[in-house]
Amino acid sequence: MSGILQRGLKSGLSLTWMLGKIIFPVTLIITIIGHTPFFPIIIDWLEPLMKLLGLPGEAAVPLVLGNFSNLYAGIGAIITFDFTVKEVFIMAIMLSFSHNLLIESSIASKVGVSWWLISGIRIGLAVISAVIINLFWSGGQEMAQYGLISSGPEPETWGGILYLGLETAVIAILQLAAIVIPLMVVMQWLKEKGYFTVMSNWLAPFTKILGVERNASMTLVTGLTIGLAYGAGLMFQAVQEEGISKKDMTLVLIFLVSCHAVVEDTLVFAPLGIPLWPLLLIRLITAIILTATIGLIWNRMELHKRKDTTAHEHTYTSV
Question: Is the pTM of this model over 0.85?
């Protein structure tokens, strides 16, 4: 057990260090830029587009960073601005569906699934979910409280701005470490005790709902627990060993880009003061409905194609 704990702590500290190297400079730089005269000009230019999503112009910064970098860069940007709970929740949903596009969507192309298809689905889900939440949720108008990060008086000197950026970045990393390190210890324990295999066996019947074969269950478990970027190696291995078809791999990835790393990608938003269960449920339900619908249509099309081919062969033989 002590060996598992050590390896889990090592993984957690390594991941915290890696993510900290993203969050720290992003938070610091955006805090400084946010106090320059150019920033309001950029925000005014983006504001009409953001209003369609129920967001202020400043929201473009975490959304762009989250999509082109990763989820943690987006969170690092969120904590540098004052947003309402509703605005943070909308951004959290959008970033949950669509983040780290260049890397995570490229992983899909490695197993033969179109980068453009996966990226289009992710961006589409992000935009549609934002519009729906904005239209139908009237709550969350109070200002979001970012854990230990509290908003004080605006600094008036460059020294004060720099101190504010450093303080915000350090607190953000400490809060992240409090979530990531215990999480990685638990993941290490689950992996070494063989519980991933157990979960794969549990999940096998669920694959029928998605319209894929049972041999895709290990890929689903890997993506749901570890995520696309960190679980890429295990996912590639599962694809090769289990002989998953291109159709099933496409459906699995459609599910996973909608809902992956469900524990980590949900808990990282805890310091932002938003409701986490709705965040998780929206992702999970969306992934199930979207994948099951596409799987149903795809399987029916294949069935009709086989019937047409059989009928054609029968006609040809008769002639």
Answer: no
